[in-house]
Amino acid sequence: MAIGMYSASVPIYQRQLGAISKVLEKASAWATAKKVDEAVLGATRMIPDMLPFTRQVQIACRFAEESAARLAGVEIPKPPEKAEKTMGELRARIAAVLSYIGNFKAEQIDGSEGREIILTIGGNPLKLTGEQYLLNFALPNFYFHCTTTYAILRQAGVEIGKRDFLGVA
Length: 169
Hints:
Elements: H1 10-34, H2 38-42, H3 53-72, H4 87-102, H5 106-109, E1 116-121, E2 124-129, H6 130-156, H7 162-166
Antiparallel strand pairs: 1-2
Helix pairs in contact: 1-3, 1-4, 1-6, 3-4, 3-6
């Protein structure tokens, strides 16, 4: 049996965002124990030209909700008006995204392999099929930002490992 577009997207986002939420919980406990201001941790970057930690989490969330909406052919939700700064606020953002994508049913997304998805990149339209969009754009970007989130916390000294990233710790 072939894997459907729903199975290749929503459950993947749910598992990984759940894992990131638990990692953020550990990061908050670490910051308290080490007397590190969460705002400082949130502003941490791997290198100067990369986005800070908070933006990595926010972008991962946006990829999950935007891609689910695009594949389902529904309006993309507006981003939050207030940018999250604390681990608690970021975890609340993840919870909101999990709630949003949890409302999608397989029949809304399955069959979207051939749906035309048009993105505007650098002011230029990029036309993709649903399958191309999910496999070559949405999932790689989602995992990039999740991985960078994890890497920034590891670099800062938060005691997390691969099992935490995978959500099996």
